[in-house]
Specification:
Blueprint lengths: L7 E5 L5 E2 L17 E5 L33 E4 L2 H6 L3 E6 L2 E2 L4 E2 L6 H11 L7 E5 L3 H13 L3 E6 L7 E2 L7 E6 L5 H11 L5 E3 L6 H7 L1 H10 L5 E5 L4 H16 L8 E7 L4 H7 L10 H10 L18 H8 L4 E3 L1 H15 L5 H16 L7 E6 L4 H7 L3 E2 L4 E2 L6 H9 L4
Parallel strand pairs: 5-16, 8-9, 8-12, 9-11, 11-18, 13-14, 13-16, 14-15
Antiparallel strand pairs: 1-2, 1-3, 4-5, 6-7, 10-17
Helix pairs in contact: 2-3, 2-5, 5-7, 6-7, 11-12
């Protein structure tokens, strides 16, 4: 089937400058200050592509050039169990994971699939460079699965301590290679390792939050919610490591306002972090656009303590134009801090009330919703969207045989860039 992509331009979030996408633009080449760029789509109406399968039903608001195999979209449903427990009249859960009972079939059990299916479909057909993705776990698993299924060359950079996150239902295609920072390293070390590899012209940096495809892929969660609810929610809850998902739904909220048929209001944003790794929470509560100081040593110690390991990005897109600070300042809302104990309680409670296991990060979001209800921050009749960013892993593993990937290379990110480039390139013969 021939795929007709939606046309779009790019906008510098700092000054509003509109310019063309050169194919993999991550920043405005004429930008004067740090800023994200945002896709401005030709199609202003939110419409589902019924001619496309899975995730790509949202293709009108995705910067993709093709569709890829085996994608699934997030599933939104009106909660009964959790809603009754919290005494909420209009709680909608957007679930990204594996739960056949509600029609959710994400094989990696994480909403990181929405990023991977969007980013990889943004690649040019004739792209010869090897895509590089740094991840603390779930993103790596999603990109590995998508690239393996679709024959896309990929170099993953992960902390060795997170290798158990790379589980699959079949061995990975040889087009996917795994480079790990040694034991004791964190997500930022994996980023540093990947950055050095990308100094070689053989590799292409995925770009993280700066990649419009990543953000607009994640933003399909709110599109799923609006498709079911028929309107923009009043409040949005999600746990954050980088905050990219919160930025993404804010951006799609603005597009939906431009449509006009689903409301003209901005849903309040309530992102949350797992204590003690709370760099964005601390900065937001201090009223600071700039991130408060956090040493590498303290960051590693905090990351080792939290249960939701994926929420441990110490260089998130918080301060730059169009980032987390701007999203919360524009939409309104607040940030929450959740302890490991609270996380554990709500993980068990969600399983009891909604019938499926969820990840620690998703449990952080559930706990923050409970806090907001207890404090009266959200009203019982508000339309609330709870973004469950991952779940059903235990269920999925009970339904299939699981295989674990192993690193192809373990490298200290402190090594000279030339050595890292050479060894990484050597994985792809």
């Amino acid at each position: 089937m021939t795929f007709e992509p939606t046309g779009y331009t790019l906008m510098n979030c700092a000054d509003g400058r509109i310019f063309e996408d050169s194919g993999w633009t991550l920043a405005d080449p004429q930008g004067k200050t740090p800023s994200l760029v945002r896709a401005v789509y030709e199609k202003k109406k939110f419409e589902i592509r019924n001619d496309l399968d899975g995730f790509y039903k949202f293709a009108n608001w995705l910067p993709v050039k093709k569709t890829l195999a085996n994608s699934c979209a997030p599933v939104t449903y009106k909660s009964r169990g959790l809603a009754e427990y919290l005494k909420l009249d209009n709680l909608y859960i957007t679930f990204s994971g594996y739960n056949p009972e509600i029609g959710a079939f994400m094989q990696t059990c994480s909403f990181k699939e929405t990023e991977a299916y969007s980013v990889c479909a943004r690649l040019q057909e004739n792209e010869e460079r090897i895509l590089v993705v740094a991840s603390a776990g779930n993103t790596a698993r999603a990109f590995a699965k998508v690239c393996s299924d679709n024959g896309i060359r990929l170099l993953l950079s992960i902390p060795a301590d997170n290798i158990n996150a790379l589980w699959f239902d079949s061995p990975l295609n040889d087009c996917v290679k795994i480079m790990a920072a040694p034991h004791g390293a964190d997500y930022y070390d994996a980023i540093a390792l990947g950055d050095k590899a990308c100094l070689s012209d053989r590799f292409l940096a995925e770009g993280g939050a700066k990649n419009i495809a990543r953000r607009d892929g994640m933003g399909t969660t709110v599109l799923s919610a609006v498709e079911v609810i028929g309107r923009i929610p009043d409040a949005y809850f999600q746990a954050i490591g980088s905050g990219t998902g919160t930025i993404a739904v804010w951006e799609n909220n603005l597009r939906l306002i431009g449509d006009g048929r689903f409301g003209t209001h901005k849903m309040k944003l309530y992102p949350s972090q797992n204590a003690p790794f709370t760099i964005m929470y601390d900065s937001w509560k201090a009223g600071s656009r700039e991130l408060l100081p956090l040493s590498a040593e303290d960051a590693r110690e905090q990351a080792s303590v939290i249960e939701a390991k994926v929420l441990s990005n110490r260089k998130p897109p918080y301060s730059l134009a169009g980032g987390v600070f701007d999203a919360l300042s524009d939409a309104g809302g607040d940030m929450y801090m959740i302890s490991n104990g609270e996380l554990d309680f709500w993980k068990e409670k969600f399983l009891e009330l909604e019938g499926v296991d969820i990840y620690s990060a998703a449990s952080v979001a559930v706990a923050s919703l409970h806090k907001a209800v207890e404090e009266g921050t959200v009203k019982h009749d508000e339309v609330i969207m709870l973004n469950i960013t991952g779940g059903g892993e235990n269920l999925a593993k009970s339904h299939k045989k699981v295989v674990y990937a192993t690193p192809d290379l373990v490298l200290d990110p402190a090594l000279p860039a030339e050595e890292i480039m050479e060894k990484a390139a050597g994985l792809f013969k």
